Amino acid sequence: MEELFCIGCGAAIQTTDKEEVGYTPQSALDKGLETGQVYCQRCFRLRHYNEISDVNISDDDFIKLLHEVGESDALVVNVIDIFDFNGSVIPGLSRFVSGNDVLMVGNKKDILPKSVKDSKVTQWLTERAHEVGLRPVDVVLTSAQNKQAIKDLIDKIESYRKGRNVYVVGVTNVGKSTLINAIIQEITGDKDVITTSRFPGTTLDKIEIPLDDGSYMFDTPGIIHRHQMAHYLTAKNLKYISPKKEIKPKTYQLNPEQTLFLAGLGRFDFMEGERQGFTAFFENTLDLHRTKLAGADDFYQKHAGSLLVPPSSKEMADFPELVRHEFMIKEKTDVVFSGLGWIRVNEKAKIAAWAPKGVDVVLRKAII
Ligand SMILES: Nc1nc2c(ncn2[C@@H]2O[C@H](COP(=O)(O)OP(=O)(O)OP(=O)(O)O)[C@@H](O)[C@H]2O)c(=O)[nH]1
Ligand SMILES: [Mg+2]
């Protein structure tokens, strides 16, 4: 019998070991074979109950896959979460893709406020790509939720792939599978073929999607990036770093020596400068809490996990300490908390931005 793969996550289907990937009860397998769509039990649970079963996928498998990409003549579509560039970088990707063309796709455009100009974001992405040694043939923005954007993406991929296979790569949670589902839906009308979720590590193995000229588009598992905020939060709180709706900026008038807590996930200290407005761009329901700088350390000690949630009191146990990054701001600048959002500083100011250890804070020219 030919080996079967789960069309939801790519794992090889097996009916013998409940603890291993690809497990499918025999009855479900028989049913799946009738309909032509076999999903493993883990995908079934994710798709119907939004419940995740933990599995171990090793970095070795991921590296093997990247080697395969390097050895094929293909278009590499590198999906980036616009919201989390630093968390989106695949270490060493430029080395692995060697001679292949890379199309960089900034996904989740729908979350950005409408006032953000695409050109500013693509310029920023292009500069970041160059910094990590990538020379993409093009940088495009998209959203799996926007029909026109998906049509444009299909056209771009078609024109750059020149009859070759397409590998869709990117770290976990950037939306590779969701984008591919949107492409499939646009072309065939079939909805939600591949399993997607808010949890890191949804896709487990390569998934082949046949294209009409005999080549393939491959969905791939995302490497798990330690620096993504997602790894420190539980299911319930992942919504804060995976916004579903356009972000509504909120402006806070701060005096020097005031602090803004980003719930318990980060902190922004205005140390020196004229009283001014700081504009915060975070998931709309994330609780921002203003306090005095002088008492801020104690405040965090006392209230993280209770008044300042997320992280919840349960998550606090494994939550990394906040690390301080100090900056002198001279012009309109976004202080980006990787994966969480950003604060726009409009005038001269000395500030400190705190993020969980391992999560980056970066500056960029304000994109609005
Ligand atoms: N707002 C918004 N959310 C998106 C978009 N695309 C994907 N998402 C969300 O991002 C999360 C991750 O999506 P997936 O498609 O499972 O991500 P992935 O890159 O395939 O992840 P792995 O399979 O773990 O590598 C889900 O909660 C999606 O709903 C988008 O365009 N906009
Ligand atoms: Mg996936």
UniProtKB/TrEMBL annotation:
TM region(s), chain numbering: none
Q: Which CDD domains does this entry report, sorted A to Z? A: YqeH
GO molecular function (one): GTP binding
In which domain of life is the source organism classified?
A: Bacteria
Q: Which Gene3D superfamilies does this chain map to?
A: P-loop containing nucleotide triphosphate hydrolases (3.40.50.300)
Matches recorded under SUPFAM superfamilies: P-loop containing nucleoside triphosphate hydrolases
Q: Which residues form the CP-type G domain?
A: 59-226
Family matches, as NCBIfam families: GTPase_YqeH (TIGR03597)
| Protein name as catalogued | GTP-binding protein YqeH
Q: Which organism is it from?
A: Streptococcus varani
